């Protein structure tokens, strides 16, 4: 049967056209005023449409729209909000004032998922929500950025629990024509399409656009009639299918994404891979530079390296994306031939040890090798990543592995409740509305009277309890529970009791079971008559993660016991909407990962901004945020080799801290109507999170540390048809070919005796053989520090040595360099030296194998 298709659009009155315009920009998702307008139109419809304004406008009866168009009060509010929206789009922002001459440049940001709002299900969890917060914050500060991802037919799964607590998955098909998404058209008013060959078959992709404030997000879609059924499934599910499906998704994202930007006439200067999923974009960039600009593979590689940013989020080796070389060859063998390199050389790009043919192809390794700018997502994660990947740079000390630390942040306007936001605006002033991520704004938190802060927080806790009860009733009804059981859950939880929140992906390393490891002790804590405690949990396990599902089942089964039924509940189908209610309403945010396996975590930041107190393992962001003034810690920074012992000790620490510190402080009222000391900790926590952990701060860090230096370096390298890039690549090739022949022949220090004084300076002379390399091409460094028992340097400080004679070239190729070191620590002290390349046109010269030690 053939069907003639039409797209029927809602007939929105002209007077409501501004409302329709704003409904198609995700700006609405972080502006409560416009959300309130939609709720005024029909509150029940708003919830029924999953807070999707585009669908709501299409489903509202025409008479409701006409009535709103005649409602003077509604129109006054609409005009005011629309003016705010237009001002936001037009206002000059941070990037303009700091880097105005670079506003014509573009950063392309690639991610496999984006968590922007409940009504746009293109995310599964933390990685996607971080990507969404990145786009919103880039818009807030005016960074010239475009984003690329995939449009999933089904998105991530909807979670329900069976009567015995086992997770069940349901996949709902997304109706993109009723979402804030627009199909991109070409000059002929036809869908814009690009293609890529997969296993010898061309796969067509159409492009959809989501507008996020000022930032366009382009999503690729293979579900079109011209494709085979196998190709149409590529953008079917997020994180669905096997490795074969995964590699096809990542080729579409990477190679297809670069081609889509070209078709859109967007000439991106910098490419940022958020995780290794999109690394295949590198291959398309290399191909274009070689075929369209006549570069060699080495020349193209240097330019791509200079203009690539890579963010790793995974702190354990097993969590990094790896593919069997046979599978990679199936889909990319022909493509690699276009790059003019052997298959062996290509595989070496994704291997820590290039000569190990048994090693699989790792996307993270390839991304680290091909990006001059790499980072972990917290200070602790930076150190973990440097340790995990130091074998890529085997001669570098761990602390110098070129992976920086840019700690994640959250988009404040998306996560702070409207009640709390109104309070902040009252005491922080208008600058909070314009730039809530500005650190200096948060110093004014002390101006808020304690009782006002407590009342607002209490109101949000009450709303959370009512929301949780409503969801619990819906869950029970779906399981065909009895009327008596339904009646019981309607009174579950106490709006005035200490409320703990725990919500995240249920993976084993997150240890969702830790709070429940001693049920008898937990029973005493939650059912204390004078000081009751209650726990609200939420989260999904990956469909293939059976151990994660077992944890959920264990918790749900325990919570169903009569002793816990009124105090512990599990809210199904964790999403952005559930997350907002939780972080905006709980008193305590609990996090129990196995250190150091939490790269960052951001849910605790969101809770802190709303006045919740973090109670967490010292992992991820909390390792750098924690002080006694802002929250509570579980355990210490000691990493135990025995997981069972670590679980036992940290469960004990959790219970002890909860009983002896958290609960008493919350209920300590001192004759007042509010907990004075607890409120002081709330203020300290808000100050800490607001000043240090906003996503605006995060994207400004990316801009200052990575984007702008890379943009400037690229501009320099690309002038005169990439003349300087060719010159620098030639220099690198020359250096690399001669590097194995250079050496430090000798280190000489004067006879100062067996002991020296703290602070004493010691002159050092070096004899350095450089073969055909000139002294200008290298930096010779004298390294000194405290010696370990194995006679390695525990600490290192470096001094650049000076060439003694610049006027002549020694006939034997041995140059003399001199310098001076200072004895900065007591104890055993050592001195060594090294040679590294030096070139002002490279962002850095920490290339694998290009370092020579004495």
UniProtKB/TrEMBL annotation:
It holds the Pfam family DUF3417. It comes from the Bacteria. One of its GO terms (molecular function) is glycogen phosphorylase activity. Gene3D superfamilies: Glycogen Phosphorylase B (3.40.50.2000). It catalyses: [(1->4)-alpha-D-glucosyl](n) + phosphate = [(1->4)-alpha-D-glucosyl](n-1) + alpha-D-glucose 1-phosphate. InterPro entries: Agluc_phsphrylas (IPR011834), Glyco_trans_35 (IPR000811), Glycogen/Maltodextrin_Phosph (IPR052182), Glycogen_phosphorylase_DUF3417 (IPR024517), Pyridoxal_P_attach_site (IPR035090). Its cofactor is pyridoxal 5'-phosphate. GO terms for biological process: carbohydrate metabolic process. It is an enzyme of class 2 (transferase). Keywords: Allosteric enzyme, Carbohydrate metabolism, Glycosyltransferase, Pyridoxal phosphate, Transferase. Its EC number is 2.4.1.1. Residues 12-118 form the DUF3417 domain. The modification N6-(pyridoxal phosphate)lysine is found at residue 606. Phosphorylase is an important allosteric enzyme in carbohydrate metabolism. Enzymes from different sources differ in their regulatory mechanisms and in their natural substrates. However, all known phosphorylases share catalytic and structural properties. Belongs to the glycogen phosphorylase family. This is glycogen phosphorylase.
């Amino acid at each position: 049967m053939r069907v003639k298709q039409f797209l029927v659009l809602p007939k929105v009155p002209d007077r409501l056209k501004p409302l329709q315009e704003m409904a198609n920009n995700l700006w609405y998702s972080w502006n409560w005023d416009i959300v309130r307008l939609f709720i005024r139109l029909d509150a029940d419809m708003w919830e029924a449409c999953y807070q999707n304004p585009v669908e709501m406008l299409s489903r509202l009866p025409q008479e409701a729209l006409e009535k709103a168009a005649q409602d003077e009060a509604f129109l006054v509010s609409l005009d005011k909000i629309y003016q705010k929206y237009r001002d936001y789009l037009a206002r000059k922002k941070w990037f303009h004032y700091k880097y105005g001459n670079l506003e014509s440049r573009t950063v392309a940001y690639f991610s496999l998922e984006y968590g922007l709002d409940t009504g746009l299900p293109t995310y599964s969890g933390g990685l996607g929500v971080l990507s969404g917060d990145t786009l919103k914050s880039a818009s807030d500060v005016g960074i010239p950025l475009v984003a690329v991802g995939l449009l999933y037919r089904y998105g991530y799964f909807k979670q329900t629990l069976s009567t015995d607590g086992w997770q069940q998955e349901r996949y709902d098909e997304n109706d993109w024509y009723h979402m804030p998404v627009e199909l991109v058209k070409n000059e002929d008013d036809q869908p814009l399409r690009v293609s890529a060959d997969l296993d010898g078959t061309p796969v067509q992709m159409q492009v959809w656009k989501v507008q996020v404030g000022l930032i366009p997000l382009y999503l690729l879609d293979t579900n079109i009639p011209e494709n085979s059924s196998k190709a149409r499934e590529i953008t079917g599910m997020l994180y669905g299918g096997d490795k074969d499906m995964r590699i096809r998704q990542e080729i579409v994202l990477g190679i297809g994404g670069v081609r889509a930007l070209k078709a859109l006439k967007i000439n991106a200067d910098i490419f940022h891979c958020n995780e290794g999923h999109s690394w295949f974009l590198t291959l398309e960039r290399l191909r274009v530079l070689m075929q369209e600009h006549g570069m060699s593979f080495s020349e193209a590689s240097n330019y791509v390296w200079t203009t690539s940013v890579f963010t790793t989020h995974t702190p354990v080796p097993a969590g990094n994306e790896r593919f069997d070389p046979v599978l990679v060859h199936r889909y990319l063998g022909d493509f690699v031939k276009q790059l003019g390199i052997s298959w062996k050389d290509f595989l070496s790009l994704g291997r820590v040890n290039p000569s190990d043919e048994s090693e699989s192809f790792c996307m993270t390794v390839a991304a680290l090798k091909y990006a001059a700018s790499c980072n972990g997502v917290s200070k602790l994660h930076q150190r973990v990543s440097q340790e995990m990947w130091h074998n890529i740079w085997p001669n570098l000390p761990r602390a110098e592995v070129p992976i920086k630390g840019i700690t994640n942040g959250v988009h404040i306007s998306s996560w702070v409740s409207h009640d709390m936001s109104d309070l902040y605006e009252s005491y922080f002033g208008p600058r909070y509305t314009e730039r809530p991520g500005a650190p200096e704004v948060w110093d004014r938190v002390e101006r808020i009277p304690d009782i006002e802060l407590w009342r607002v927080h209490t109101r949000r806790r009450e709303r959370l309890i009512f929301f949780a009860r409503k969801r619990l009733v819906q869950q029970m009804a779906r399981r065909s529970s009895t009327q008596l059981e339904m009646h019981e859950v309607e009174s579950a939880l106490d709006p005035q009791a200490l409320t703990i929140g725990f919500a995240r992906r249920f993976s084993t390393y997150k240890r969702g079971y830790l709070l429940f490891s001693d049920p008898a002790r937990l029973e005493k804590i939650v059912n204390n008559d004078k000081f009751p405690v209650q726990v609200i949990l939420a989260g999904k396990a990956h469909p293939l993660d059976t151990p994660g599902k077992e944890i959920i089942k264990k918790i749900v089964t325990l919570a169903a016991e009569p002793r816990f039924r009124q105090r512990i509940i599990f809210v199904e189908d964790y999403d952005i909407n559930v997350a907002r209610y939780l972080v905006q309403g709980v008193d305590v945010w609990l996090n129990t990962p196995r250190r150091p396996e939490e790269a960052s975590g951001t849910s605790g930041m969101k809770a802190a901004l709303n006045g919740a107190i973090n109670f967490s393992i010292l992992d991820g962001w909390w390792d750098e945020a924690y002080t006694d003034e802002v929250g509570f810690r579980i355990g210490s920074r000691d990493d135990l080799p025995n997981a069972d012992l670590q679980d036992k000790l940290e469960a004990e620490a959790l219970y002890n801290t909860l009983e002896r510190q958290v609960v008493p402080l919350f209920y300590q009222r001192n004759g007042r109507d509010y907990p004075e000391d607890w409120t002081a900790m709330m203020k300290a926590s808000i100050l800490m999170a607001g000043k240090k952990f906003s996503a605006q701060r995060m994207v400004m860090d990316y801009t200052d540390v990575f984007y702008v230096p890379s943009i400037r370096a690229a501009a320099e390298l690309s002038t005169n048809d990439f003349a300087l890039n060719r010159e620098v690549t030639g220099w690198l090739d020359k250096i690399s070919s001669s590097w194995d022949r250079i050496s430090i022949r000798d280190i000489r220090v004067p006879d100062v005796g067996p002991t020296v004084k703290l602070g004493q300076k010691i002159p050092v002379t070096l004899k350095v053989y450089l073969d055909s390399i000139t002294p200008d091409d290298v930096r010779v460094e004298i390294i000194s520090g405290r010696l370990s028992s194995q006679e390695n340097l525990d600490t290192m400080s470096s001094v650049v040595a000076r060439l003694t004679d610049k006027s002549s070239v020694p006939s034997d190729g041995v140059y003399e360099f001199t310098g001076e070191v200072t004895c900065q620590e007591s104890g055993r002290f050592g001195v060594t030296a090294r040679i590294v390349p030096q070139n002002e046109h490279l962002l850095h010269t920490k290339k694998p194998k290009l370092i020579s030690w004495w």
